[in-house]
Design goal:
- By secondary structure, this protein is mainly beta.
- Helix content is 8%, strand content 32%.
- It has one helix at 36-42, and strands spanning 18-22, 25-29, 34-35, 50-54, 57-59, 68-69, 74-79.
- The radius of gyration is 20 Å and the shape is elongated.
- The termini are far apart.
């Protein structure tokens, strides 16, 4: 009475991904671990012109390199727009 053989497929890990909400829209990224600075880069945003909030907490630009975006996080990105009328 031996044990049943283990299926090799049971040891294969699925490709880890992170599912987050960005400005209310669901997005999926193919990294199990994603820093906020990487997210901004992947979205091709100019870091000098945005403010970022993760789960209702503003994250200072100096902290983007350390801040991990995790599965299920809610990210809000606000773009600064210059301009106006000169008088």
């Amino acid at each position: 009475m031996g044990t049943s053989p283990k299926c090799a497929a049971s040891f294969i890990q699925p490709n880890p991904s992170v599912q987050i909400q960005i400005n209310g829209e669901p997005r999926e990224f193919s990294h199990a671990s994603l820093r906020l600075s990487e997210l901004v880069e992947q979205l091709a945003l100019a870091p000098q012109r945005i403010a970022v909030e993760v789960n209702r907490q503003i994250v200072r630009r100096a902290e983007w390199e350390e801040k991990q975006v995790r599965d299920g996080d809610h990210v809000e990105i606000v773009h600064f727009v210059g301009g106006g009328e000169n008088q």
